[in-house]
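FORM 12-B: Structure-to-Sequence Request
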């Protein structure tokens, strides 16, 4: 079965508008939850129903042992990727902090051989230029 990680944008689509349910619940995918995605979801869950939904996601992925945290090697590699992207594209990471999180999500998916699914094509394609990983962009 194929291992997958969903980016936070897809969970937000599902929680806010009920969209993407067919993708999020598709078989025979083996879903993992990036702890970086959980951080983004938890930080943005300002309404009680959103906070409860994020809590449910956390409990579920924790219970089944599919929480994925970046390893020390992944953090090390992410630093190299971000340095290269700054040099190539002139990014100021103080203004592009989201790219730091996206880099950790992408390299974490690579860490376990999972495919990352997202709507955020621009940032993840940039990361792929430096560190190849399996990516599916969802329209």
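FORM 12-B RESPONSE
SEQUENCE OUT:
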């Amino acid at each position: 079965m194929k291992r997958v990680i969903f980016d936070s944008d897809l969970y937000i689509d599902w929680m806010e508008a009920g969209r993407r349910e067919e993708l999020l619940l598709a078989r025979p995918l083996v879903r993992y939850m990036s702890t970086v995605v959980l951080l983004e979801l938890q930080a943005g869950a300002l309404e009680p129903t959103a906070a409860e939904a994020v809590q449910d996601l956390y409990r579920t992925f924790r219970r089944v042992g599919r929480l994925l945290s970046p390893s020390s090697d992944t953090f090390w590699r992410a630093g190299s990727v971000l340095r290269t992207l700054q040099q190539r594209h002139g990014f100021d990471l103080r203004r592009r902090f989201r790219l730091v999180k996206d880099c950790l999500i992408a390299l974490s998916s690579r860490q376990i051989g999972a495919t990352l699914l997202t709507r955020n094509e621009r940032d993840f394609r940039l990361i792929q230029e430096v560190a190849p990983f399996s990516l599916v962009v969802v329209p």
